[in-house]
Amino acid sequence: MKIGIDARFVGPQGTGLGKYTEKLILNLAEIDTKNEYVIFLKEDNWQFLNLNKFKNFTKVLADVSWYSLQEQYKMAGIFKVQNLDLLHVPHFNVPIMYRGKFVVTIHDLIHHKFAEHTATTKNPLIFKIKRLGYKKIIEHAILNSKKIITPSNFVKDDILKNFKVEPSKIAVTYEAAEDEYLTKTRNLKLETRNYLLYVGNAYPHKNLNTLLDAMQTLDTKLIIVSPRDVFSSRLKEEIKNRNLESKVDLKGYMEPQELSKLFHTSTAYIFPTLSEGFGIPALNAMAAGLPVIASNIPVLKEIYGSAAVYFDPNRSEDIAEKISKVMTNTKTRINLVKEGLEQAKKYSWQKM
After folding, report:
1. CB neighbour burial string for 195-211, b if at least 16 within 10 angstroms, e if fewer
2. Residue burial 311-337, b: 16+ Cβ < 10 Å; e: rest
3. Alpha-carbon distance 340 to 270, whole Å?
4. CA-CA distance, 287 to 345, in Å (whole number)?
5. 3-class secondary structure, 171
6. Are 5 and 86 a contacting pair, CB within 8 Å?
7. Residue 340 near residue 303, CB atoms below 8 Å
8. DSSP per-residue letters across 247-268
């Protein structure tokens, strides 16, 4: 078969989608020598994937921006020229005009749940137009795909609640921790710095404002590592408004090796999110031997099991109570580290 994979998200700018697509391609390259693969990349991530040693993998330039109008008509043509037997688009943004066979990965339905204007930087009219476009595109992706891939049973169930599709059409393929966080060397009694860590975007559904409310009553520090954008700028203002500059350190993008050091020296990882499709960041923390404190939402319980301390993400006092429990109790932290390391081992990119 000749299989195409839209890899325009690959690289740091594509955040979690980029990591998923990168791991998908690199692990397919290791295990599949029979099928022919065409990998569609942008100019700025052309060099990111080194596939030279894999003779059945070919790169094709597709220098088209994500979520753009061009994506809808240009990408359909780029895909068609390759005469593919099957196309895999690892996100919902399948061109409506593409008529070939395709499978799609739906990572979550967060855009369905968080439709408010605060979740965008666009003016209200443009936001409304783009939202209508999103609905049409995701409906096309879900209803016309040959198969739907999701990263959790939670997302599968969410799709079944919102769209008329057969359960057998959806395949759940769990993701995994990133390699640079895996550790076998962290000493459970290692003296760490007294701070919490959060890594990820500052989108509204990440619920960081409620975490800041919890921080006002705690005698500990928080490091937030988040891409520099309008959402992190808003978060900076929220930190200032609460007089938390001395407690909360907001950092921008960090290289994986530098970030990995933070995972290995912090006291615990905090994940106050209201919605996820899988939850790689806290799984990275577990793989690095870091205790995890997380929202008690169903998807995180599915992925983390008993390897985390859970809180109600809508109650800042509960967040503060659970943080205090983990930060002040060495036995609790040691147990969480042990369980977290075992939980992270259950997942691998090659299985995915």
Report:
1. bbbbbbbbbbbbbbbbb
2. bebeebebbbbbbeebbeeeeebebbb
3. 14
4. 8
5. strand
6. no
7. no
8. TEEEE----HHHHHHHHHHSSE
Cβ contact 137:98 at 8 Å: no
**How far is it, in rounded angstroms, from Cα 13 to Cα 181?**
20
> Which residues in 200-306 belong to E strands, given as ranges?
221-225, 248-251, 268-271, 292-295
The whole-number pLDDT of residue 115 equals 59
Q: How many CB atoms lie within 10 A of CB 1?
A: 10
Q: Is 200 left (phi over 0), alpha (psi -120 to 50) or beta?
A: left
Which residue is it, tokens 């809508």?
314
Sheet bearing 268-271, strands edge to edge: 248-251, 221-225, 195-199, 268-271, 292-295, 309-311
pLDDT at res. 9: 94
pTM for this structure? 0.91
- What is the distance between the alpha carbons of residues 102 and 215, in angstroms, rounded to a whole number? 46
**In one letter, which amino acid is 290?**
L
Residue 249 φ/ψ region, left for φ over 0, alpha for ψ in the -120 to 50 degree band, beta for the rest: beta
What residues in the chain have per-residue pLDDT under 70? 14, 114-124, 127, 183-193
- C-alpha distance from residue 140 to each of 2, 96, 127, 163 (Å): 23, 6, 20, 11
Helix axis angle for 330-345 and 316-328, nearest 10°, is: 100
Distances (CA, A) of 88 to 21, 46, 194: 10, 18, 44
Q: Give the three-state DSSP class for 50.
A: coil
Q: Identify the H or E element spanning 339.
A: helix 330-345
Give the up-direction half-sphere exposure of residue 250: CA atoms within 13 A in the CB hemisphere.
Answer: 20
Q: Map residue 338 onto helix, strand or coil.
A: helix
- Phi/psi for 283 (5° steps) reads -70, -35
pLDDT confidence of residue 67: 87
Return the sign of the alpha-carbon dihedral for residues 35, 36, 39, 40.
negative
Q: What is the pLDDT of residue 183?
A: 63
**What torsion, rounded to 10 degrees, do the Cα atoms 224, 227, 233, 236 define?**
10
